[in-house]
């Protein structure tokens, strides 16, 4: 029997197939990983190699600290080392509004009320300064007194701190205020020498950089830059003479009911300013009542027509150019001159007088006669040579050059007015320089406000014999002429008075005057020149011989003792009372 074989089943070769798109998903994932890895590598390379400073800075901000090593502002002292301006340490109150907000310090209203009363402020106004927690620093009160600083410490308000600053202090107060000047609350110069030499006085603060850890401990000293100390200003001013001059000037301005006054004392041999004062003045230690008109250094900023104080220069010019000699006689009859329809007159008919008597009696007719013979070019040459119309060399802020014009045509009357001090203007310091040239034998020496260690170079401008002759003539002005009130017992004094009417802005002259006196002491061996200006005296004694000359006498008398200058006049002179000594000075 045949056996049937069972049929074979069809076997299909089943192949394993990948899902659709699997390969592309793999490639995409791999690419993304590579791309991300590349970005991370690039970012790491950028941070570590290309621009590491930014993140290094972020780290340093969290760990590096720096402290400023402050320096005090340099001192200003007089020629003998007396302090005129010093810096003293004081406390300043400041606050950290963020720290105040975090500690809830504003809730303690009693402490804030006490703090506001300490600063003489409204409490709401004080709180408004610290109510912004985004701020980290705000001043509450600058440079408080020691008692106020101690009270702030006792209040112990969280977020309110003290820091040490410096405050400028002026020991001499109003006496030297115009010359020294002032600083603002940040110690920056605002007026006078404080402003002019601000960089010189400031110096450069030092700096210390170090690293701290999370606990605030110093773990590394990075660097330290030493502070550059400021420089000191040593002035030529002698504070003893400065105080004397200010005291006498202030009394005179008050006694004469004047608008203002100035006085200058110059060392003849060195050109150093020993004193420069003005009245009214101001107290630089009290800023509550500062007024601009009190802060002006009038000795260098205000120019006046000098009146008869220029007459010695007219005589000097005549001697220099040979139009007159020492023994010449000037005929002033009949006591007046008519020039171009205008009249020049003396207070009385002096007749025929010598050059000495021209100055002794302050004769307008005498100097006019000399000027007309001399010529305008020669007279202007002398005025320019004496320093009129130019700076004095002190290089102080605001110094005026005065007014001395040059033009082609001058009338005879204009020349006449130039000879007795009208038609030009000079400052008190310029007049002092002119008289210093007469006193030191005709040499032009620049003036200075700083102490000189040696005699400076000078230029011979006028003949020494001629300046000596003029100085002897000016002695007669003090001994017997219009300036007897300028006499100083024991000393020979040479000088000249001046009284000029002030011009009005609308033209012509008004009823206000300027009284001046310029003098040399002692005449035998000149040591100092002193010029006094009294502006707009309010009394009837508005003449240079009665308003300004007594101030000169008081200043010189005390200065001679301070400088230990021996007397050069041992003759006993009778006491003289100051009288009505206006003379020709009052004639415009």
Polypeptide structure, described:
By secondary structure, the protein is α+β, with helices and mostly antiparallel strands. Helices cover 34% and strands 21% of the residues. The chain has 19 helices and 21 strands. It has helices spanning 22-50, 53-63, 97-103, 109-118, 123-128, 146-155, 177-180, 192-196, 198-202, 239-255, 298-301, 311-320, 355-360, 364-374, 376-385, 412-419, 428-439, 464-479, 544-562, and strands at residues 64-69, 76-77, 83-95, 138-144, 160-169, 206-212, 218-225, 233-234, 260-267, 273-279, 303-304, 329-331, 336-339, 342-345, 352-354, 426-427, 443-444, 459-460, 494-503, 509-521, 528-535. Helix 10 packs antiparallel against helix 19 (544-562), helix 12 (311-320) packs across helix 15 (376-385) and helix 14 crosses helix 16. Its main location: membrane. Its EC number is 3.4.16.4.
Briefly characterize the structure:
This protein is α+β, with helices and mostly antiparallel strands and 588 residues long. The chain has helices at 22-50, 53-63, 97-103, 109-118, 123-128, 146-155, 177-180, 192-196, 198-202, 239-255, 298-301, 311-320, 355-360, 364-374, 376-385, 412-419, 428-439, 464-479, 544-562, and strands at residues 64-69, 76-77, 83-95, 138-144, 160-169, 206-212, 218-225, 233-234, 260-267, 273-279, 303-304, 329-331, 336-339, 342-345, 352-354, 426-427, 443-444, 459-460, 494-503, 509-521, 528-535. The strands form 7 sheets. Strands 2, 3, 4, 5 and 8 form a 5-stranded mixed beta sheet that branches.
